[in-house]
Amino acid sequence: MTHAPVVDVLAGKYAVGETVTVKGWVRTRRDSKAGLSFIALHDGSCFDPVQVIALNTLPNYADIQRLTAGCSLVVTATVKESEGQGQALELDATEVSIVGWVENPDTYPMAAKRHSIEYLREHAHLRPRTNVIGAVTRVRNCLSQAIHRFFHERGYFWVSTPIITASDTEGAGELFRVSTLDMMNIPTTEQGDVDYSQDFFGREAYLTVSGQLNGETYACAMSKIYTFGPTFRAENSNTSRHLAEFWMIEPEVAFADLGDIAQLAEDMLKYVCKAVLEERADDMAFFAQRINKEAISRLEKLISSDFVRMDYTDAIEILENCGKDFEFPVSWGIDLSSEHERYLAEEHVGAPIIMQNYPKDIKAFYMRLNDDNKTVAAMDVLAPGIGEIIGGSQREERLDVFDDRLEEMGLSKEDYGWYRDLRRYGTVPHSGFGLGFERLVAYVTGMQNVRDVIPFPRTPGNASY
Ligand code: 4AD
Hints:
This protein is an alpha+beta fold. The chain is built from 13 helices and 16 strands. It folds into three domains: 4-105, CATH 2.40.50.140; 129-164 and 211-450, Bira Bifunctional Protein, Domain 2 (BirA Bifunctional Protein, domain 2, 2-Layer Sandwich); 172-207, no CATH class. Helix content is 30%, strand content 24%. It has an eight-stranded mixed β-sheet, with helices on both faces. The longest helix has 23 residues, at 131-153. It is elongated and about 85 Å long. The site of 4-amino-1,4-dioxobutan-2-aminium adenosine-5'-monophosphate (4AD) has 24 residues, from strand 11, strand 15, strand 16 and helix 13. 4-amino-1,4-dioxobutan-2-aminium adenosine-5'-monophosphate binds at residues 169-170, 210, 212, 233, 235, 242-243, 246, 248, 250, 388-393, 432-434, 436, 438-439, 450. It catalyses: tRNA(Asn) + L-asparagine + ATP = L-asparaginyl-tRNA(Asn) + AMP + diphosphate + H(+). This is Asparagine--tRNA ligase. Belongs to the class-II aminoacyl-tRNA synthetase family.
């Protein structure tokens, strides 16, 4: 017997009259006085459940009448045209085999009613059974497939950069240490410092905050690469945009400048948003109805309009003169906070902005110094509703300028030996960016908090499951 995913049944892949087997979980059950039960059965393969009709002539009809939300079933049935409104096809059950009951249906945490998003977060192991998290999961998958496709079609190689690393790429000190030292008996040097030479790697090691530096080494040989992997930041930010563990996509391109990489970011975002609209119309209709009524229209707008390029210096002028009372005061040199980014993207422009050429003092050591000696060739993509989703730059490829920068920042050349080698042996201008995957999924779905677009969010104080 064909195991038929619900998505295929509803799409009409099986002829009316054909016998199929569907496997899934009960979302709802209602009984008719005429002696039949209607079971909405979902299997995660699409937004809608399929309606299964079970007649009282089935030998286990008494059991069927006790089915509640969450019970698992294997149903053998005949495909038929639906008599009711809504879906065109439904299933006439010839056999309903009950695989797993739900104990104490009254206390089943995912009983069929609307739950708050915070409640669902507390039941992260059961929440994939809900409409909303099911839809997020399918859109997340669609986005990641589209990202791989986008790069593959353009000749990029996917490079796996290490998760355990010795370098703090962003220099922000938000590192999780990886150590096998016995916390009760930490070895120390003669000076009283922790003796990391006795640790597993013979030195200090951390979870990576970004695959960029390793990515650069491959770009400077393979020309066009990207990474797609988990990254970790021990920043104590309890916001709707920050996670301690998040996924990042980092393309890195040799012989590319800031303009090239900004265009790549725009093309990629348009490509993946188009893929979601085409491939996940069912889920996007749900998000537009329940989460954000502009969920679809703003993606359509993003695809059809040019992103606005804006210089940091111009943005500061706009913010200073807009007459708004910001919590964080505005002046040249500040790091834009989310209220500034949101004002610019939502109110001032109303579309994604590619903000460029930031003051060097607020940016990382590897960014290329502009001719003004004050700014670096950096760019952030700011999306309405969420703020920064991409951060990138042209990298400093000139060894002498790079060394000056290291010195200025109090960093040692020895620590960057292998990175400096790229500048010593056949250096090339190169550029790249990092896309925060959860911020992208939140933007596309309209979900308010990145904790609801990753299966098991890691945030300060939360590492259950
Ligand atoms: O701007 P960031 O720190 O850039 C880098 O890490 C560069 N090395 C990227 C590169 O040029 N290859 O981070 C890039 C993106 C941000 O724009 C944001 O979307 C996301 O990563 N991000 C986070 N997402 C969730 N939680 C956090 N704590 C995040 N920190 C950064």
